[in-house]
Amino acid sequence: MAKILVTGAAGFIGFHLCKTLSERGDTIVGLDNISGYYDISLKLARLKELGINQHEISEGVKSKSNNFKNFSFIKADIKDKNVIDKLFENEKFDSVANLAAQAGVRYSVENPQVYIDANIQGFINILEACRNHPVKHLVFASSSSVYGANTKMPFSVTHNVDHPLSLYAATKKSNELMAHAYSHLFNIPVTGLRFFTVYGPWGRPDMALFLFSDAIANDKPIKVFNKGDMARDFTYIDDIVDGVIKVLDKPAAPDLNWDSENPNPATSKAPYRIYNIGKNKPVKLMDFIQTLENEFGKVAKKDFLPIQAGDVPSTFANVNELIEDLDFQPVTDIKKGIKAFVEWYNLYYNLS
Predict the structure, then answer these.
(1) Is the dihedral of CA 225, 210, 201, 173 positive or negative?
(2) How many CA atoms lie within 13 A of 213 on its CB side?
(3) DSSP code of residue 272
(4) Which residues pair with 303 in a beta bridge?
(5) Is 155 helix (H, G, I), strand (E, B) or coil?
(6) Contact 179, 138 (CB under 8 A)
(7) Interval 167-191: pLDDT, tens
């Protein structure tokens, strides 16, 4: 079994990944700065599920899990270079799953510096640590938002992505470029994963499913942007985690057929890969809302609004490379996924 660093361990995807890897038997070190971007109590509740109680958390100190003998947690920030260097030197990781980032498209419009600190400075610290303390594989979270102004569907990793519509998207594209440079220069096997609208139990409160559920549960109107003319390739959390693990277990290798005169942006002569992880079946926003209404058993009040700055009308993942290279594709139906979320939501907020 491998020794793996998972950054963003108190986050939505990071929490689920830590849990699944710990159950598999890997030795996991989870790292998170527990930022206040959204409700800290939810992050602490996720950590408690992993066996880390709030009173055991101390800045820069590794805490052992009470639930998994092979899981430990450290509160730290990836933008702190000295802490990251020391951690890599002491732990000697086999692999890294870098999920720590400042998330959110709309938040980046008003708070740009936070994205530079976390997504650029933090990521270069991870790359430098992997350079100085070599790992077998670095996997990092990119985003479907990198497709930006693209309208050709479905989005393919072979498409040009030079027109981001938000600083968040620009930082994720920057991560891909930085990763390729380090892979080329220092032979670091690295894979970037473009996640498509992840949802499910323990999800983020700033995401549509959580916001809609809060509104419906409290008889408040939901904000329906672009007057409902939106579609998302909603991808269930269990599928995302399965995909991340399959990628982690298969380090990126050089593409021996890579052609510098006709370059494929998703591969390289360096050990570098980019994959989409999406359901490959976009759902119209109004259908998504109706499915959620059915689960709650009541019709939502709706406030129809224009599209927000930095947002895109639709997403749709081409996952051919994921299928060809890893024999994997997300499969969870939207009705099943929303049902699981609502059951968790009701239990978490003692509504059932």
Answers:
(1) positive
(2) 28
(3) E
(4) 223
(5) strand
(6) yes
(7) 999 999 999 999 999 999 999 999 9
